[in-house]
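seq:
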Amino acid sequence: MGSSVVSSRFSAKAESYEKYALVQKQMAAGLLAMIKEATRPSSIRHILEIGCGTGGLTHLARAHFHEAGYEALDVAPGMLQKAQEKMDQLHLSCTFIQGDAEEWVWNQPEKSKDLILSGACFQWFAQPEHTLSGLYRLLRPDGSLFFSTFGKATFCELHDSFARAHASLGEESVRHGLPLLEAGQWIQILENIGFEDIHVTTQKVILTYPSVRDFLYSVKAIGANTSRDQTAGLGRRKLMLKMMENYEQQYGSEQGIPVTYEIMYVHGKRG
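struct:
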């Protein structure tokens, strides 16, 4: 997916992102806890955050590493504006940069960062290994990369319901959503690049929504709706209705419908 499409989608949703990005907020707190445990603020002078969004992780990390220089990059100007407003309210300083990380990293000075962090962003990379190689290049020796992302079990109920819908319509199943990687795949990528001391922890979070429509609306509200099914037409009414019917039948209860998120926290060091 082109960066301009992602940029405009997230910019348009900057306002509603704050309200609906519940799991992303949990991920920010979880990632910062991991960073605090593994680093000493006195040893961190230059920080880069990739995909800062509306600043959910930015303000937490900035408050902890208040002596370091802090740069935060995002592709969406609408998100950056929200992040800047949040930082201004909290009287925290940060240099915000608009850019596509997958290109931007290759134009930055080598070995210039002590810490690179990113919350719920790397699943959007078109070339994860290439881009992580660029981030490795920016780290100083002993510098650390910390990121959170979504694992393959994320939205498993939705994927199952779509598969059933395709089958009942006599169609070949197509994956709806981002092609998420497993923990082992991220480890392999980091090892290939040369990262050391690699740690991955995963946890599953299950949210309950009143209905499938409410869940889909919340995904749309943070700008995160995407699909590989461009030709078959995700918006095709019959397929969507069948999927929703399957979801409610298979997983629904009086409380509503469950939505699984697999959260992954990853840490690697430059040797």
